[in-house]
Fold this sequence. Notes:
With 591 residues, the protein is of the alpha/beta class. It has helices at residues 10-24, 52-60, 64-74, 97-109, 139-158, 174-185, 188-193, 195-212, 214-228, 232-256, 273-282, 332-347, 361-373, 406-425, 430-451, 462-465, 473-489, 506-527, 531-551, 559-582; strands at 38-39, 48-50, 81-86, 90-95, 123-127, 161-165, 286-289, 292-295, 309-312, 315-318, 321-324, 351-355, 379-383, 388-389, 458-459. Residues 127, 130-132, 167, 169, 336, 339, 354, 356 line the site of arginine (ARG).
Amino acid sequence: MATSSMEITILEAFRLRVEKALLSLSLDLPEGFLVQVSQSADLRFGDYQSNSAMVLAKRLKQNPRALAEKLVEQIEISDLGELSIAGPGFLNLKISSSFWASRMQWLLTDPKLGVMAPKSPEMIVLDFSAPNVAKPMHVGHIRSTIIGDCLGRVARFLGHEVKTDNHIGDWGTQFGMVIWGWKNLLDQEALAEEPLSELLRIYRSVNAKCKDDEEIKNACREELVKLQGGDSENTAIWDQCVEVSKVGLQKIYTWLEVDFDHWHGESYYNDRLPAVVKSLEDTGQARESDGAICVFTSGELAPEKDPFQINRDGEWRDNPMIVRKQDGAFNYATTDIATVDYRVEEWKAEKILYVVDARQSLHFQQLFDVARRRGISATLEHVSFGTILGENRKPLKTRDGDLPQLEDVLRDAVAAARQVLEQKSGHLPEQEKEELAETIGLGSVKFTELSHHRTSDYIFDLEKMVALEGDTAPYLQYSYVRVRSIFRKLEQLPSFDQISLSLREDEEIHLSRILARFAEDLPVVLDDYRPNLLATYLLDLAKAFHSFFEACPVLKSEGEVRDSRVALCELTARVLKQGLSLLGIKVPERM
Ligand code: ARG
């Protein structure tokens, strides 16, 4: 019997069929040989292809074309479509229109829209956003927040167990300045009104004062030492700063619909740090150097690959990771080591993803190497990203030269969306326009972020990102609205779980092909943590829908043809809505 082709993707069905046929040829398969299949980039050659006959023939020193022919004879595939051989031995599969129809029928009954459960579900911890309390959120936190949230949503939808953790910087040297500022500069009224901005104002003004006033600088240092020593007044101020900041941050996350399962900030691990350093010393990983305790190279890696060595003037030198400073204070690195231990022990993390600015790459390389030396078996990955640029192609700054804050960026985007709406949909009621501007504005910031390859820099161009034309969130949201508007004009909906589809037009087939690819493309997002693959997919889907909509009248058609087209519209709406929601983007019903 041929492998059932429902409940698995077409790609997987094809792979299994090729594999089965290969096994039946009783060849002497090389160790670790895996059948490879892919979507065809060029549709003239069919929908799917496999180069396995060629790869295998090469390794077995056989004629590739002859091997491909033998394979084609053995393979059971007529229910899916037609298989042909091209060139030196490519297998090309063209899916039949009847199979597309049955696939669409099945998708209509599947709440997961064809997405298969992962072969081995994992416990994944996602560490993202993580701004520093009282310091301005930098642009990197915008990227981290949006990318991290999206990866969490995708991983959950794929069937993994996910914990999101906001590892906020709620401990550290900045508190010396904040506490001194609190005691000397605080405006109580402003604090009550806009706590986060008041904290930020104090921080900035102390920071500026410290630059040319040694006395203030020392005073800040003393406040820090007192805090670290457990002084009750300073601890109370610190506590208040953290609380106030959390409330302010939560407001932004609520607005963005970004959720964290935990907020175990850096301070959460304070009690564990002495033991971490002791164990590093006891196992010989760390030792004293100039009064500090440092981790040095293990000597196991080639110097070019060793984050504990650095090349200066042609010579390799130590590049240690400090885990206890000369003054006895623990730091960011120590906390991160304790955090790995905690997540693995308490949460049974199998994978920890750090969605953090590329500039911290060395820190994470060192952290991961320390974890490896400590025998941590979880996979740790730094999901890094580039910089958001202004129109001058330099890192985005505000007019005052500060790093823009997430909240301001979002506000600007909502205002820009509102302007577009005034032009295009001025007639809508005020309240609705306001809600729409939020949906479109926030969606635009998210989509711009997620549609770029995360490691590349991109230019933040408000006008472009809220435009209805182009590869934008509003374009996708509008596509959804267009599909839904068809439903409003229908007197009666077919019952989707009983419907039998018939597809004739090329545009119907193409739309079906793209709809079926959702289940194939989504898991790839997690392979290299690339939400832009999902963004691109959704743009392809919207384009396929628009072509279909131009070529194939829905409301004016009749009978089975009409039912089939309505069904394709329904699936398009479901996949668009689901896909956008995995990017953290909402869809309006009209706009
Ligand atoms: N608070 C850090 C920063 O603002 C980011 C923390 C990232 N997470 C971590 N576990 N190190 O740069």
